[in-house]
Amino acid sequence: MNKKLVNKIKDRMLLGSIYDNIMLKTRYKGEHLNFNYNVMVGQKHRMLYYKRLKRKYLDKVSAKAYWEDKEPVYNNDQIWICWFQGLEKAPDLVKICVDSVKKNLPGKNITIITMDNYADYVKMPDHIIEKFKKGIISYTFFSDLVRLELLTTHGGYWIDSTVFLSGSKLFDYIDKMDFFAYSFYYFGFNPEIMTINNWLMKSGTNNNILSLTKELLYAYWKDYDRALDYFINMLFMTMAVDYYKDEFNKMPIVSQVNAHVLATYMGESYDELKWNLLKEMTDVHKLSNKFTDKETSGEGTFYKALIKGELS
Question: Fewer CB within 10 Å, N or C, the chain?
Answer without folding.
Answer: N
